[in-house]
Amino acid sequence: MAKARNLHENIYTLPNFLTFSRLIAAPFIGYCILHDYHATALGLFAYAGITDALDGWIARRWNLKTVVGTVIDPMADKTLMTVLTVALAMKGALPVWLAVIILGRDVALAISAIYYRWISLPPPKTFARYWDFSLPSAEVRPTTISKVNTALQLGLMGLTTLAPVVPGLEMGAALGVMHYVVATTTIWSGASYVYSKDAVRILTPPKEEAENEKAHDGSGKADKDSQRKTRQ
């Protein structure tokens, strides 16, 4: 903990590059949906889904997990979900009330992430250090219901994106049921972050770090005093 402020990690890993590519793909998917390039939107969405599974497998298989990966992976998921939600709602393919629930939860989580990053960042708290993702300070641990909710949301968005590509595919009733299921899990998952103590783990608590350093300094002084007395 005493060395926490100097802790850096290698963020240039294949899983992180795949995650970042998924982050970049999100606005292009939204553009394609808004301009009725449905096949291209579906293809990019499939790419996002494949890389989402692949980056996690690679990180576990070759021990390439990073703290920044725990942050940008859900960030990429939420960016994709936000873009899809807004684009599909604007095209009338997604109910506005469901879009409000999904976006409201994500905005609340984003504000919480900004807050936890700030309070967990070891001093000096500067703008450059705040955005230095090689300096980890807090780790996000998605709750079980959050993982289920993400899967259901992606399933709903995938089916909604698929519908215009396949002529004659009737999914109105199934999508109607999924709207209410996703609304329920979205609210539930948002509440789980509030009541779960393990959702966010601060890696460098400033107060504890200071106390440990003081205790270390105190014990060091005591050892020196003891050595002086022994010599006398």
Mean pLDDT: 82
First and last CA, distance: 35 Å
Reported by name, the CATH topology is Four Helix Bundle (Hemerythrin (Met), subunit A)
Helix content estimate: over 70%
What does the radius of gyration come to? 23 Å
Q: Approximately what portion of the residues adopt beta-strand conformation?
A: under 5%
Shape: globular
Number of helices: 8
Q: Name the poorly predicted regions.
A: 1-6, 205-210
**H-E string:** HHHHHEHHEH
CATH architecture verdict? Up-down Bundle
Largest pleated sheet: 2 strands, antiparallel
Q: CATH first level: which class? A: Mainly Alpha
Architecture overview:
This protein is mainly α and 232 residues long. It has one domain (4-231): Four Helix Bundle (Hemerythrin (Met), subunit A). It contains eight helices and two strands, in the order αααααβααβα. The protein has helices at 14-34, 38-61, 67-90, 96-120, 127-130, 144-162, 172-195, 206-231, and strands at residues 138-140, 200-202. The chain has a two-stranded antiparallel sheet. The radius of gyration is 23 Å and the shape is globular. Residues 1-6 and 205-210 have low confidence and may be disordered. It is found in: Membrane.
What's the short story on this structure?
This protein is an all-alpha fold and 232 residues long. 72% of the residues lie in helices and 3% in strands. The chain has a two-stranded antiparallel sheet with strand order 1-2.
List keywords for this structure.
CDP-OH_P_trans; single chain; disordered N terminus; Four Helix Bundle (Hemerythrin (Met), subunit A); 2 strands; transferase; 232 residues; mainly alpha; transmembrane helix; transmembrane
